[in-house]
DNA sequence: TGATTCTAGGGTAGCCGTAG
DNA sequence: CTACGGCTACCCTAGAATCA
C-alpha cells in the first residue's frame, strides 16, 4: 500500500554540512490528494545545471544502495519519474512525513539521507530481503525501546524542577522504557498496571494503548490513536497537540480522508478548560470512512501555521 | 543510581438534560 | 419512556522530582 502513489511537497534549498549542495523533500505518500509529479526544486537545478544530466540521476543511500531515477523535463521544471520515485520510496520503506535530503556529491550523483518523521532520526534501510516482521518493527519502532541507535526514541529533556508535565510527545508507549520499574512500584501500591495487551486484544489484532502517539516536531504535526468504542461520536485531541497547534482555540476543523477524499467539518468542544473534543461531524466522518473500533488512525494537521480553517488529514494505519 | 513520591494529563463510565 | 449528546468525576499512567 505504501508507496503506491507518491508525491512530495515542502522543498527548501540547503547546504550540506560537508559542503555539498543539497535540497530536501518531504514524502507524503499516498495521502497526497493531488496527482502532482515529484518536482525537483527549480532553483537547485538552475544553480547546478552543469553537474546534472538531463535524463537520469543516481541516488546513493547510506546502506550502500544505489538507484537510478529518470528525470522528466517539462519546460524549466524537472521531475523525478513517478515510477522510479515510487520504487525508491518502496525500497527505502518511506513513511508519510519522512524527510529525504539529497546531497549532490558528483556528476548527477546524490547521496540520500532519510529522516523518519516519527522519530526525527536518520533511517538506514535494512537489507532488501527484509521480512514483513522487520517491516512491521520498523514501522512501529517509535513505540519500542530497542537498542538501535538509528531508531532511538527522542525523549523530552528534563526541565526545571517541578516543571509542569508536558504531553507525551514522541515518548515511548507503556510497553517501552521504564515499564518494569513502574510495574514493581505499582504492584507495591496495589495498583493494577496494564503494560501489555490482553489476550482478547491480541486476538482482535491490535494492542490497546492508553495513550495516543503525538509528533509535534514534524513539519506537519500529527497524532495517532486506536479508535475505541467511546470514540463513536466524539474523540479527544491530545492536549499537547491541541495547544501546540492552536486547535485548542479553534471552533471548527475541516477533516479530510486520505482514502476517499471525503471531507467533513467537525466541531471542536473545549471541556473543563483542559480537554479538547472533536464532536459534531466526527461521527459522520467516521461512518463515511468506515473507521471502526480497533482501527489505528493518524491525524495530521496540514496547515499548522495558516490563519484559515485548520485541516486535519485522517489516515487509517495498518493495525499492529 | 535506584527507589519512591508527586502530579499533570489521558481515558472512560456514568450522570444529567433535552428532544422526540 | 427512550435515545442521544454533553459533561464531569474519577481512575490510572507515566514523566519529573526527590531522596537515600
Automatic annotation (TrEMBL):
List, alphabetically, the GO terms of the cellular component aspect. nucleus
Q: Keywords for this entry?
A: DNA-binding, Nucleus, Transcription, Transcription regulation
The record ties this protein, via CDD domains, to: B3_DNA
Name of this chain's protein: TF-B3 domain-containing protein
Q: Which Pfam families match?
A: B3
User: What organism, scientifically named, is this protein from?
Assistant: Cuscuta campestris
Please state the protein's primary subcellular location. Answer: nucleus
Q: Which GO terms describe its molecular function?
A: DNA binding
Q: Where is the TF-B3 domain?
A: 23-118, 220-318
